[in-house]
Design brief:
329 residues, Pnp Oxidase, Chain A, 13 strands, alpha+beta
Length: 329
């Protein structure tokens, strides 16, 4: 609102005079206050550098933002048919109906009920090597932790405990006490670090709350120990029952670093393997595949140039013959 405003109509013209109260918005781009840095964001200071590095990593990782995925072996019944000779042997595997290990819904339940997990570690084994003077710690092998502890919430029927008991049951027979083959009871497991911002794709973001920012895959996994549960008569009803499970594994790998060649780590959208289908060169494809690499690359460029430059349809009255294809776009 202006401090003073007056107007007078003279003929067909309306003349008005006023004194504005504020002119700060007349030249917003030239306002010196915009170029002033806020306290704590100056990158020349230690706290400014620290905040900048935290912002580059989109905040800090939170220990309660994780996801565990379990891929147990199939629960099958093996039927062996033996013919007249030793070579006539056939093994048919049939999935066990209504098995906990074969139920996709139960696998999702296990993932949701996991309340505690550990990222595995990898160690470089060294030995002190001395030639002259102080020794050097020289690596001679590497190893893995071999075990990992997890905790799962149990429902009324303790289906989560029964799931891992069924998995352990594939390792041995309760009647004969014989152990089964190793490949019959090992599976895999994946552990992911999740984002924590609440923005969604509707807000212009990319669902960071459910984004997997880090992940490892454990190989040859099986439940080594289904832990003990302590019952107590005097306890809070709101405290859920925890089911401790210790997993054994052989190796693990970083899903991004060990699977994607030349990955740039730490980007907002991580690199993923990009598999491109091979181009089809028609009847020339079989001939080109038998040539040396240098001639094969040059021949492909010649064929591409012919397909781009020669008007095949004009010379054939609109008819197109393979392997040439006219781009209709």
């Amino acid at each position: 609102m202006a401090i003073f405003r007056a107007g007078k109509r003279i003929g067909n013209m309306d003349i008005r005079i006023g004194l504005p109260r504020d002119k700060s918005l007349d030249n917003v781009e030239g306002d010196k206050r915009i170029t002033q840095q806020r306290p704590g964001v100056n990158q020349a200071t230690s706290i400014g550098k620290f905040i900048t590095e935290i912002n580059k990593g989109e905040g800090i990782a939170r220990a309660n933002r994780f996801l565990v995925r379990v891929f147990p072996p199939r629960d099958v019944i093996r039927t062996i048919f033996i013919g007249d000779t030793a070579q006539e042997r056939e093994v048919i595997e049939t999935d066990v109906e209504n098995s906990l290990l074969n139920s996709e819904g139960m696998k999702r339940n296990i993932e949701l009920m996991c309340t505690s997990a550990e990222l595995p570690h990898r160690d470089v084994l060294t030995e002190n090597f001395v030639t002259y003077g102080p020794g050097r710690r020289m690596p001679f092998a590497y190893g893995y932790g071999g075990t990992m502890d997890c905790m799962f919430m149990g429902d009324k029927f303790l289906r989560q405990r029964a799931f891992f008991e069924t998995w352990q049951g594939k390792m041995h027979s309760l009647e004969s006490h014989n152990l089964q083959y190793y490949d019959d009871y090992v599976g895999t497991m994946e552990i992911y670090q999740l984002g924590h911002y609440r923005e969604t794709s509707k807000d212009g973001g990319y669902d960071d709350n459910f984004r997997m920012t880090y992940g490892v895959r454990l190989h040859e996994v099986y439940p080594e120990s289904v832990g003990m549960i302590q019952y107590q008569a005097v306890t809070d009803d709101m405290v859920p029952m925890d089911i401790p499970i210790k997993f054994a594994y052989r190796t693990w790998e970083n899903i991004t670093l060990d699977a994607v060649n030349g990955v740039v780590y730490g980007k907002s959208i991580p690199d993923m393997p990009n598999i491109k289908p091979a181009k089809s060169y028609g009847i020339f494809g079989g001939i080109l595949s038998k040539m040396p690499p240098e001639i094969r690359r040059a021949s492909k460029r010649v064929i591409e140039k012919i397909r781009r430059d020669i008007p095949i349809g004009k010379g054939t009255g609109g008819r197109v013959y393979p392997p040439f294809v006219i781009n209709k776009n």
